[in-house]
Amino acid sequence: MRRRDFIRLLTAIGFLPAATAAAAESWPAAGDPQFWSWIRRQFYFPDGQAYFNVGTLGACPRPVIEAVIESMRGIEQDIATYDYRPEHPEYIAGYRKQEELRAKVASLINASAREVALLQNATMGSNFIAHGWSSISAMKCC
Which positions of the chain have pLDDT values less than 70? Predict the structure, then answer.
């Protein structure tokens, strides 16, 4: 796979959580010269600006922001009845092992669910790599 195609794939994966059939149909064709302009319009920061510091806080595409806002509205409506039981939605991340999500990710990358680690951000992942497996094992999170 060419590097540019790989980057396009990663960009597309970022839009998956909020994508709908209608939104998927509105994507420009693979060779369309407007492809990157369309991608640029998916973000809220103003024209003429670019944001490259994704090691701490990155810019989210509009569909992701809208999905987060909608999720927050749902939480606000239901929070009084939230009780941490497994059959209820998880509003506070980190309390469950997320086996179902890990299995879905594993199927996308041709791995087993046990080989998939879900982390808070890229910086955390980079630090695990920099400090070695013992730092992961010490957390007893996986």
Answer: 1-25, 55-56, 91-95, 133, 135-142
Q: Return the structure tokens found at 41.
A: 């319009």
Partnered with residue 61 across adjacent β-strands are 43
Dihedral pair phi/psi, residue 61, rounded to 5°? -65, 155
Locus of tokens 């640029």:
40
Number of continuous H segments (helices) and E segments (strands) in the chain: 7, 0
Say how far apart CA 91 and CA 82 lie, in whole Å.
8
Give yes or no for a contact between 118 and 50, defined as CB atoms under 8 angstroms apart: no
CA 127 to each of CA 93, 140, 142: distance values in angstroms, whole numbers, following the listed order: 20, 16, 16
Tokens of 136: 């992961």
Rounded to whole angstroms, the Cα distance separating 101 from 8 reads: 23
Q: What is the pLDDT of residue 78?
A: 81
